[in-house]
Each structure stands twice: as C-alpha cells, then as structure tokens.
Amino acid sequence: MNDLAPLLTPEGRALLDEVRNTDPAQELAVATRLRREHPAELVSAALGQARLRQRAVVKFGAEDAGRMFFTPNGVEQSTRASVAAYRARRMADLGITSVADLCCGIGGDAIALARAGIRVLAVDRDPQTAAAARANADALGLAGLVEVREADVTEVDTAGFDAVFVDPARRGGRGRIFGPEAYSPPLSWAVSAARRAPRAAALKIAPGIPHEAVPEDAEAEWISDGGDVKEAVLWFGTEPGAVRATLLPGPRTLLSRGLPDPAVRPPGRYLYEPDGAVIRAHLVAEVADRVGGGLLDATIAYITADALHPNPYATAYEITDHLPFNVKKLKALLRERRVGTLTVKKRGSAVEPEELRRKVKPQGPHAATVFLTRVAGAPAMLIGHPA
Predict the structure, then answer these.
(1) Cis peptide before 249 (omega within 30 of 0)
(2) pLDDT string in tens for the chain (387-residue length)
(3) Cα–Cα distance, 217 to 195 (Å, whole number)
(4) pTM surpassing 0.85?
(5) Exposed e or buried b for every residue in 233-264, given b needs 16+ CB within 10 A?
(6) Which residues in the chain belong to E strands, given as ranges?
(7) Is residue 199 a contact partner of residue 170, using CB atoms and an 8 Å limit?
C-alpha cells in the first residue's frame, strides 16, 4: 500500500468496511470478486489495510484498530495503547498542556496525549507515515487537538510547547538498531532537544540500553505490560537520577533505593521471579529486600526465600525439589509425579525448553514448573508450582 488517499474516499472507506473481517485464507476469492466492481489497486490496498488492522488489535484494541490506518512499520514500531496512555497520564499529572511529538509514527502516542487533553504537534518525515497519523487523528475524533506535520524533526521549532516527546527510529535496513547513537535521530540529539523543553520531556528508548548511557540529569523508567517489557523512557524535568520500574496494568511503580546486591544463599522454600522491568531497571535488590530473600547465584535474577510474601513485582513459586542438572533424574521424577503439563523456565542455562520437553516426555494429569538455572555457580533444576 503506497498511498492512503484512495482508502480515504467514500469508495475506499466502503470497501474497507466490506473486507473488515476477511479471513486470510479467503483473500484471493474475495479479491477476485471485488475486482469486478472496483479498481484492482484499491482492492489490494483495502485487503492489505484490513490485514494490518487485524495485526494491530493486540496493541490498540479491536475498536480503535478497526478505525485506524496503518503502515507495516507502523504496526510493528508503534507504542502499545496501554503504555502510551500511562505516559500521557504522567504528562498530564505534570501539568503539561502541549507536547511536540517528534518521530510520531502512525500517531499512537499523539492519540493517547490528545485523549489526556493535551495539544499535540505530531511530526514525522515519512509522507506515508504522516498521512496515517493525520488519518488516525481524524478517524478517532482528535483532529482538533492533533496537528500532523511532515518534516525533519531536527528542523522543527518546539519552543512553543510545554514538553517534548521523542521516539527515535530503532530499526534500519538490516533490522533492529542497538547503539543509541545509531538511532534516527541519534540519542544525543534527542537528549539535547529534551533539555531545551520548557517543562519536561520524555525519550522512548530500547529497554536494553546500558545504564551507563543514561544521562545524569534524567530519570530512567522501564515499563512492562502484562509481564512483557515494552520500553524504557528517559524523563527530563521530573526526578534527575531516579530509576524506576513500572508494571502495567496498574500502574505499579518500584523506585530504586540504591540497595547493594543481595547475598547468595541456599535455595529456600520459595523462588521469586522478578518482572522483566524490575530486572532491566536493576531493582532485583529492592524485591529481595521486600521478600527477605537472597540470590540463587550472583549473576542470575532468581530470588530465593523461606517465606511467602506476595508482591506485584515478582511471581512466587513454591519449590518442592532441588536437584543438580540431570535429564534422566528429571524424567523419572516427573513420571513419578505424573506431570503432563511442564512449564520450563531458564536463566543461566544453555538448554532450550522445547528440547527438554522432548527428552522428558511429560505425561499425566498434573502440572509443574522446572527452573533451569545455576545455584552458587553449579547447574541445577528446581521444580515447583506457582505459590
């Protein structure tokens, strides 16, 4: 799909409604039928857009995705609606009333900001992407709060806005980009733009950013949604030097207290698996302190404790068995316990979960979780179940 314009016409919109729920397996038959009454290019564009909308449901929900317009890159790179809404609420709570959204993509963050009552200038240099952002603001009734501009973000004057939000492109022709200075625009430029913002700024970055790359005057926040780490954000104008992990839904936020690394100790009755955002934010010590636990191994983010202390930042498991790594012993134990549903989790192990399942061939009515990890440097297996 090279041009959204035909899909925005009455004929294009009617065609989009007609192909909305097309089963991918029936696309060829549907296309053949529709091409008798509509231009072939328009039919292809409508079916392509319907496919993108179906993929976008997981990020935007069925109602919004069914009205929005997407590009293939836009579906992949746009912010999940729940994360964008959380960030927009933070902006609103800071008293922000206007934001320059630089590298806006198809407009996911601009939509969330506008729904929070914030006026938005959404900028993207790609014509097709900017057209999608404009169409989305209109489709969702937010055109009065969202101005979309096709431009190079480095040439946009943001002086008239309370805050700046920058989401640099982290994908290139060869895939994902990991070096912050290889972002487009580079992280150094985004930081400079953030520091010029009158009130506050937020920079969306990859969650794998090294902590030493975080500027001293920034707050660093790692965000997960439903247990999956989605992104990291550098905030300016909030709490310089603060580090936090935020878990959605909620939100629930864990702040760093600068605790030392937990001590390594023998396995206790319970194992705690910290949320990915907690691990990325280097806040495992804060969780260990909450549950009175230590680490199974100095290099692995599994916490062990003798008591159950439920908390939102880690999933607790009751451990029934602790064995040195041995597939035959595991297979015998699972057969004895009649375990047919086996969840395999690993950290610090080269064994792949599917490979282990094939070898132990679990059978039976019961379920168990096995952790493949290291205990004080030695390969080990811990078997248990959610507490």
Answers:
(1) yes
(2) 457 889 999 999 999 999 988 888 888 989 999 999 999 999 999 999 999 999 999 999 999 999 999 998 889 889 999 999 999 999 999 999 999 999 999 999 999 999 999 999 999 999 999 999 999 999 999 999 999 999 999 999 999 999 999 998 766 555 565 677 777 788 899 999 999 999 999 999 989 999 999 999 999 999 999 999 999 999 999 999 999 999 999 899 999 999 999 999 999 999 999 999 999 999 999 999 999 999 999 999 999 999 999 899 999 999 999 999 999 999 999 999 999 999 999 999 999 999 999 999 999 999 999 999 999 999 999 999 999
(3) 9
(4) yes
(5) bbbbbbeeeebbbbbbeeeeebebeeeeebeb
(6) 98-102, 119-124, 146-150, 163-166, 171-172, 175-176, 200-205, 219-225, 228-236, 243-248, 252-255, 270-274, 294-297, 300-305, 314-324, 339-346, 366-375, 378-386
(7) no
Whether the CB-CB separation of 215 and 189 falls below 8 Å is answered with: no
- The count of other CB atoms within 10 Å of the CB of residue 32 is 10
Residues in the chain: 387
